[in-house]
Automatic annotation (TrEMBL):
Gene3D superfamilies: 3.30.2320.50. This is Hydrogenase maturation nickel metallochaperone HypA.
Length: 45
């Protein structure tokens, strides 16, 4: 999976959740990577 695609999915998920929670802003996220997620940590660096 390409890094840009990962970022697009993360942003989409954040946006959807923020709307659902009626949040005015998002100040911090904590992405997780590893065997269970299928995402290698190196994909973010």
């Amino acid at each position: 999976m390409h890094e840009s695609h990962l970022i697009e999915l993360i942003i989409k998920g954040i946006s959807e959740n923020a709307k659902k929670e009626e949040a005015k802003s998002v100040s911090k996220i904590r992405p997780k990577a590893g065997a269970i997620t299928g995402v290698k940590k190196d994909s973010f660096y």
